[in-house]
């Protein structure tokens, strides 16, 4: 009986660990049914290319993604900098009781922010220093006047297919 209980507990834990962010991400109201697969695939690329998000996935909760665009404004930051006319805004919370993160990051309870886009330079925009640190592969900006940093991810070209 004890062995059966342990086996069941391990199976439940394995099932919980297999829920990747692309499977559990909450989609914003602007994400139409035709865009859901694209958004989930882009979030999966984010986690694949930001190895820190993958490694620390236990400490990350409440993944949320929303489709955004420049609404025809060519002077938008995303459009001017990377040629994005559409992008996906992703937020994810760090657990209040995060265990494995460096204490000096002061990450507990913070919200990470990323923008994912295609355009002429497909990739990931890390919006804050903590987001960049948690990604693990983004350059880190300590400049409060220019906090964004960029990671080229050719697979993010898929974001251009958003309707």
Into which percentage range does the β-strand content fall? 15-25%
Reading the helices and strands in chain order gives: HHEHHEHEEEHE
- Structurally, the number of domains stands at 1
Q: Decide which structural class fits the backbone.
A: alpha+beta
Low-confidence stretches: 3-18
- Oligomeric state, counting identical vs distinct chains: single chain
Instruction: Please list the strands of the largest sheet in the order they lie side by side.
Output: 1-2-3-4-5-6
**Radius of gyration over alpha carbons?**
17 Å
Number of strands: 6
Ends distance: 54 Å
Number of helices: 6
Rounded mean pLDDT score: 85
Largest sheet: 6 strands, mixed
Helix content: 25-40%
User: Any idea what the shape is?
Assistant: globular
How does this structure look, described?
By secondary structure, this protein is of the alpha+beta class. It has one domain. Helices cover 32% and strands 22% of the residues. The protein contains 6 helices and 6 strands, in the order ααβααβαβββαβ. It has helices at residues 2-17, 21-24, 36-49, 51-55, 77-82, 129-135, and strands at residues 26-27, 60-69, 86-94, 111-117, 123-126, 149-152. It has a 6-stranded mixed beta sheet, covered by helices on one side. Strand 4 and strand 5 (123-126) form a beta hairpin.
The gist of it:
The chain is of the alpha+beta class and 163 residues long. It has helices at 2-17, 21-24, 36-49, 51-55, 77-82, 129-135, and strands at 26-27, 60-69, 86-94, 111-117, 123-126, 149-152. It has 6 helices and 6 strands; from the N terminus they run H-H-E-H-H-E-H-E-E-E-H-E.
């Amino acid at each position: 009986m004890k062995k059966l209980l342990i086996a069941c507990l391990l199976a439940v834990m394995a099932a919980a660990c297999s829920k990747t962010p692309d499977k559990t991400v909450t989609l914003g109201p602007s994400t139409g049914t035709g865009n859901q697969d694209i958004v989930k695939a882009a979030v999966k690329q984010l986690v694949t290319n930001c190895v820190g998000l993958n490694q620390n996935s236990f400490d990350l909760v409440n993944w949320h993604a929303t489709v955004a665009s420049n609404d025809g404004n060519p002077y938008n930051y995303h459009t001017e900098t990377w040629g994005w006319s559409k992008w996906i805004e992703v937020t994810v919370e760090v657990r209040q009781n995060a265990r494995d993160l460096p204490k000096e990051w002061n990450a507990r309870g913070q919200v990470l922010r990323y923008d994912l886009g295609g355009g002429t330079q497909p990739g990931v925009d890390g919006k804050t220093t903590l987001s960049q640190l948690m990604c693990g592969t983004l350059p880190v900006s300590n400049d409060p006047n220019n906090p964004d940093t960029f990671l080229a991810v050719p697979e993010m070209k898929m974001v251009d297919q958003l309707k």
